[in-house]
Write a structure and sequence with these properties.
heterodimer; A: 351 residues; alpha/beta; B: 353 residues; Rossmann fold; 14 strands
Chain lengths: 351, 353
């Protein structure tokens, strides 16, 4: 797989100042009981001490199972949720100290593509109005040019520009997602948060949207924070990956490092669970079976959160929480006993 | 064809002329349509397959391909109206399950006795398929109370056994829990326990892992495989996920717009696909083990079932399209004994694999 490395240009994308800098971000939700006299009976640590950098023109994948805090991380960065603790900087500006009007500007710089193209488009607005709506808040395009600009955007995302006066229900899922992408692009953002942008789409359409997102990145130089649970799809769009488990990042590195040299047992298990679309060698494929389910985030295990499902767990794992640091293999891993020797078993042939 | 239709009297006595030699399920030329205000939605147009003992058959298709609806018809749980079976035959062990309705001429499912006992179904979304106001023990036990007439106490005991069998930890304590107290994977295990409780010979699993996380998905698929090896039951796996198919299936039927596009053994489908749609799916899918700079998608989107294109339904998206495809519906061409493709140009497609 050495040739794979040469085509990955991720290394040289991490240059200059990060456009988005997140440090020790925490978001806890209180569980309350009672209606009049609310008292806190527990805390869900949805995001617990997450730090990462996103560089201009780069895409960073945030992957993990449902409930691991990947969407909450994104929502907190946009201040759709108020953070419990931590810092986040967009182009050097402190997001968590922004006033309302500054936040409005921020949301013109960072836009979102949502998961469900059926729920995220207003059924009573025409496609043209949906795409033009951000301009009525952020400005940027004079009123008389808006129709032209909308049509241009439709062309960018591969839809017929004459569709401006149609309604969302007249489009298929893939086409609706393209409308969502056009809306996210309308205000010329620097960063787009893609929250599971293809998971609701049919398989034959997913690849179209993945390719479109890649083309847009090339053309407009936007950076993506790509949130997804489908590791196979993520691999084809991101430069770097951060794997989350129970609110924490357990491993991060460039795509090649994480996919082919995973160090954290959770990453290994997650990767080995992803089915490979090739029947050859399916009997001999190494598969790590994790026992049970993800523990409840209200009461996570002590020390390493993963230790209850980990086959390598030692007494040390219960006592001491492993830090997310580089352990001699070029990318940070939050595990006391990383091994980097993960392989998928019998190599599968490609057709 | 109708030799084995069961008469009213047979039904009451439960006398099936089950042929021990016959395959578990034989589906022939099944047509299902929905008659709605906007017109007729032709959801299934000629599905056919044979399921043998211990076999895992994958029915692969995107949303709207008719893969679920056809199996609702086979199970006799199609919503009528608006859904009607208009043509075709479904045989379980040689027993014809469909018979024409006297007035409408559409086909009714006439052997409800097989449902749950001989052919059982696992649904995609366990949270909606389970009743939130009853305990899981009660719901699994219902199978025994209704079908075997067991007492509540005995049924509960059997429910615990079933929960053990699908590896729900501490089944004894959890038998009195409600569905919302279970995680997604555990709920799916409850669904499988219900389906398995009466030792069916066929399990139809409708996207059993789609709503689950990958680590749980592989647990559930392994469980199904293991149970199948223990009991020798046939498994029909309805899915849109090529990777899941590659991991578990023995043979595959590829559906598109309610039609069979290709069918064959797993190796044939993955390594010598003879239909442009199958080939397109293979090329467009992202793989976890290989980095590709670019995926090769199939252009366009699946057709509107109210207005299926004439000729081959795939022709507007097909790279191999010729004039004939636009007017004539290709029949299923036999490539070899088990492998067939509904494409005029299957030979050329196969060369390009």
């Amino acid at each position: 797989m050495s040739e794979t490395r040469t085509v990955t240009q991720s290394v040289n994308k991490q240059q200059g100042e990060p456009i988005l800098k997140v440090r020790n971000l925490k978001k806890y939700f209180n569980i309350t009981k009672g209606i009049v006299f609310k008292k806190t009976v527990g805390v869900v640590k949805a995001v617990d001490d997450v730090s990462f950098d996103l560089y201009p023109g780069e895409s960073l994948g945030l992957v993990g199972e449902s409930g691991c805090g990947k969407t909450t991380t994104a929502r907190t960065i946009l201040r759709l949720e108020e953070p419990t603790a931590g810092e986040a900087y967009f182009q050097g500006d402190d997001i968590f100290a922004m006033s309302k009007s500054e936040l409005r500007d921020l949301r013109g710089e960072i836009t979102v593509i949502f998961q469900d193209p059926y729920a995220s488009l207003n059924p009573r607005m025409t496609v043209g109005d949906i795409i033009a709506e951000p301009w009525s808040i952020h400005g940027g395009v004079p009123r008389k040019n808006r129709k032209n600009r909308t049509q241009e955007l439709l062309e960018v995302v591969g839809l017929n520009p004459n569709n401006v006066s149609r309604y969302p229900h007249q489009f298929s899922g893939g086409q609706r997602q393209r409308i969502g992408i056009a809306r996210a692009l309308a205000v010329d953002p620097k960063t787009i948060i893609c929250d599971e942008p293809v998971s609701a789409l049919d398989v034959s359409v997913q690849a179209q949207v993945v390719n479109l997102l890649k083309d847009i990145q090339k053309e407009f130089g936007v950076s993506y924070l790509f949130i997804a649970h489908d590791l196979a799809v993520v691999r084809h769009i991101v430069d770097r990956v951060a794997v989350m488990y129970l609110g924490k990042i357990v491993e991060t590195g460039d795509e090649f490092d994480v996919y082919d040299h995973a160090g954290h047992p959770y990453t290994e298990a997650l990767l080995s669970a992803v089915p490979v679309p090739d029947p050859v060698g399916r009997e001999g494929r190494k598969r790590i079976m994790l026992e049970g389910d993800v523990p409840s985030p209200t009461n996570p295990p002590s020390g390493c959160h993963f230790r209850t499902r980990c086959w390598k767990a030692q007494p040390k794992c219960a006592e001491e929480e492993p830090a997310l640091i580089e352990r001699g293999h070029g990318h940070p891993v939050a595990c006391h006993f990383p091994d980097y020797e993960f392989s998928r078993g019998a190599p599968s042939s490609t057709t | 064809m109708k030799t084995n239709v069961i008469s009213e009297a047979d039904l009451k006595l439960g006398r099936y002329r089950i042929d021990p030699e016959a395959p578990l399920l034989e589906v022939e030329d099944l047509h299902v349509e929905f008659r709605i205000e906007d017109g007729i939605v032709k959801a299934v147009n000629g599905l056919a397959y044979t399921l043998g003992k211990g076999e895992t058959l994958a029915v692969l298709g995107e949303s709207g391909s008719g893969k679920s609806v056809s199996h609702h018809a086979i199970m006799g749980i199609l919503d009528t109206p608006p859904g009607y079976v208009t043509k075709g035959s479904v045989k379980f062990r040689g027993v014809e399950l469909l018979a024409p309705h006297k007035k409408t001429g559409t086909l009714d499912h006439v052997v409800p006795e097989i449902r749950g006992t001989r052919v059982a179904m696992v649904f995609q979304d366990a949270l909606t398929a389970l009743n939130p106001v009853f305990t899981v023990g009660w719901q699994i036990g219902e199978m025994f109370r209704v079908h075997e007439g067991l007492s509540r106490k005995a049924a509960k005991q059997r429910a615990i056994e079933m929960m053990d069998r699908v590896k729900i930890p501490s089944a004894k304590e959890r038998v009195n829990s409600y569905p919302h107290e279970f995680s997604g994977g555990m709920r799916q295990r409850v669904m499988i326990a219900m389906a398995l409780s009466l030792d069916p010979e066929v399990i139809i699993a409708d996207e059993p892992t789609t709503a689950l996380d990958v680590t749980v998905q592989s647990q559930i698929m392994d469980l199904l495989k293991e149970l199948q090896q223990d009991t020798g039951m046939g498994l029909v796996l309805i899915t849109h996920d090529l990777a899941v198919v590659a991991e578990v299936a023995d043979s595959v039927v590829v559906m598109y717009a309610g039609r069979r596009m290709e069918k064959g053994g797993i190796e044939e489908i993955f390594h010598s696909a003879a239909h442009p749609y199958t080939l397109g799916l293979m090329k467009s899918i992202a793989r976890p083990d290989v980095h590709l700079e670019r995926l090769e998608p199939i252009m366009g989107s699946p057709p509107d079932l109210l207005d299926i294109p004439p000729g081959c339904p795939f022709h507007p998206r097909c790279e191999y399209v010729i004039d004939r495809c636009r007017v004539e519906i290709p029949e299923l061409y036999a490539i070899d004994e088990h492998h067939s493709s509904a494409c005029f140009r299957w030979q050329e497609v196969q060369i390009h694999v």
